[in-house]
Description:
By secondary structure, the chain is an alpha/beta fold. It contains seven helices and four strands; from the N terminus they run αβαβαββαααα. Helix 2 (41-58) links the parallel strand 1 and strand 2.
Amino acid sequence: MSNFAKLGRLFLVALTLLLFSVNLTAGDDLILCNDNNIINSRAIGEIEKIGDELKSKSKVSVYLCVKKSIDGKKIKDFEKGLIPKMKKPYILLTMAVDDQKVDIITSPDTKKLVDIDAVLSPFGGTIIPILTSRKGSDKYSAAMLNGYADITDRVANNLGIKLKSSVGNTNRILINILRVIVYGSFIYFTIMYIRRKYFKKKR
Length: 203
């Protein structure tokens, strides 16, 4: 067999292996849906970078789905329809804007890797405080990026993995500042309302 024939065969083998590897990874986009680009391209880029790094280091896929509306469905029922599109082990962060719903589901093998209640807490979480304290469409991008980063950080910490793309402590400081402003304002206006009612009664 000539050298050219050997090179030709090697090329075909390499091409076949390349196409096979592409097929293995195809169809595993971590962004399952983003209606009308609710989450802006900059946030999507950061989310994909964080998610890809976590997946490469842990095999855990953290998916995101943002819908304008789920037409009054229960969010759990909507999420069930997305399960066939995901590869185990997975975590899914879902938001339905018009329905004002946010949720997280996991496969059985990732359940212990993330504290769902902590991420979704209106007091100590990284999503709800942003949604309730900011105005405009950018709050959805900020909330999903922060929530996604929080989820991936928790998974990485539980597995002893360091993520170069992690948002880190700076992000948490900003969240805490927002939280103080929101709930501080709520307490202030509640006190002022009670005082006014009290003084009106005295008069």
